[in-house]
């Protein structure tokens, strides 16, 4: 892409090229098979670069239309869906989840004992829709491996997802029967909250989650490549996993994207492309509208992208220190996004109010309303904590701002 260095974008194009120089080393030494980065300012794409291979073993390069498993970058899409229903007054943020999923009516909280026979007490607060959006529900993930409630999920065959053949409705009922890690609203913990939110969207709308996305979000935004399975398997990047020898192919996990899943995971099920997800982030940057299609009001987007943790706390104060797709210091949480509250605490020269999220295979995006900027990283290496590539990308992008 040619960049006009004299363009009044507030970006030094020679400094943006540092992104390519830095990330090329990840491909050269085998840490990543390939990557695609796009940076926009004021709606104009000011840097778009890709390098490496979508399938290293087959010698197939990363291309502009490569498809990626975006995993938890599905969560903002599901959160937008829920807030569209909120704007229609079809649900309230304070509604108990049991209003839509009755099995969540009598929740229990873990207080002791082994995973096979946990000791519990009744929850002191109903789980509400807002708790799902903010990950303050008390739900967890089986793959955390730091608490007994995580082990409870694994004993039920749920580490990275429910057992084969279980649909979303049944998965939600199974989670409702498991003990919560804490009372809803009392702490932050990364877990299956957004999957439950996806089921709420289904119940309220009367449509399956894939149908709702297609009719209300991906279809209207022209996101033709985004679905719960790869729309074109030939364009799907191979999935790689960290090993002592670098990135190794992980087909056993990655092949799930080749067919429609039994459970439509609003927390991690979508496959998408750079162009598609860029359109989604542009809709957010523009306050809920793109190319004449408005999904949300600008007020609602600002509301979603504000910190909803009690007392303005960050995740370091209010969260449980374990794996998540964001740093904890200086970062709060909104309705579906992490939100930067204190750039000094993060150690990144970003902006107060910058928001975004990432996925298990190291994909990442953020929107900076102060700088009118969006950035997206697409790649396919799990786990996302393998390398500090997200932090480095932020440093490189903000280091290129030069008014």
TrEMBL record:
InterPro entries: Beta-lactam-related, Beta-lactam/transpept-like, Diverse_Enzym_Activities. Residues 19-386 form the Beta-lactamase-related domain. Pfam families: Beta-lactamase. This is Beta-lactamase family protein. It comes from Flexivirga aerilata.
């Amino acid at each position: 892409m040619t960049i006009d260095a004299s363009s009044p974008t507030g970006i030094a194009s020679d400094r943006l090229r540092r992104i390519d120089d830095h990330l090329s080393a990840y491909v050269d030494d085998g840490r990543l098979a390939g990557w695609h980065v796009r940076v926009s300012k004021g709606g104009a794409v000011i840097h778009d670069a890709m390098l490496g291979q979508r399938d290293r073993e087959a010698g197939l390069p990363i291309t502009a239309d490569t498809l990626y498993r975006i995993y938890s970058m599905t969560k903002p899409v599901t959160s937008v869906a829920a807030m569209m229903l909120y704007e229609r007054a079809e649900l309230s943020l304070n509604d108990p989840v049991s209003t839509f999923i009755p099995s969540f009516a009598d929740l229990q909280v873990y207080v002791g004992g082994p995973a096979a026979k946990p000791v519990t007490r009744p929850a002191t607060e109903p789980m509400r829709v807002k708790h799902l959006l903010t990950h303050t529900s008390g739900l967890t993930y089986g793959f955390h491996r730091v608490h007994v409630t995580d082990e409870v999920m694994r004993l039920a065959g749920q580490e990275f997802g429910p057992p084969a053949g279980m649909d979303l409705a049944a998965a939600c009922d199974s989670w409702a029967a498991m003990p919560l890690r804490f009372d809803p609203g009392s702490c932050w913990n990364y877990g299956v909250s957004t999957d439950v939110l996806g089921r709420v969207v289904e119940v309220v709308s009367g449509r399956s989650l894939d149908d709702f996305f297609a009719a209300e979000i991906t279809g209207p935004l022209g996101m033709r490549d985004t679905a719960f399975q790869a729309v074109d398997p030939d364009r799907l990047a191979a999935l790689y996993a960290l090993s002592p020898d670098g990135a190794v192919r992980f087909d056993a996990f990655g092949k799930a994207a080749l067919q429609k899943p039994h459970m439509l995971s609003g927390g991690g099920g979508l496959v998408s492309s750079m162009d598609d997800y860029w359109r989604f982030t542009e809709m957010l940057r523009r306050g809920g509208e793109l190319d004449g299609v408005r999904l949300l009001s600008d007020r609602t987007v600002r509301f979603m992208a504000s910190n909803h943790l009690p007392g303005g706390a960050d995740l370091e104060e209010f969260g449980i220190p374990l794996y998540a797709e964001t740093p904890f210091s200086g970062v709060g949480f909104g309705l579906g996004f992490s939100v930067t509250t204190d750039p000094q605490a993060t150690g990144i020269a970003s902006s107060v109010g910058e928001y975004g999220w990432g996925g298990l295979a190291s994909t990442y995006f953020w929107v900076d309303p102060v700088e009118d900027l969006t950035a997206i990283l697409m790649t396919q290496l799990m786990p996302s904590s393998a390398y500090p590539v997200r932090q480095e990308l932020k440093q490189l992008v903000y280091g290129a701002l030069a008014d």
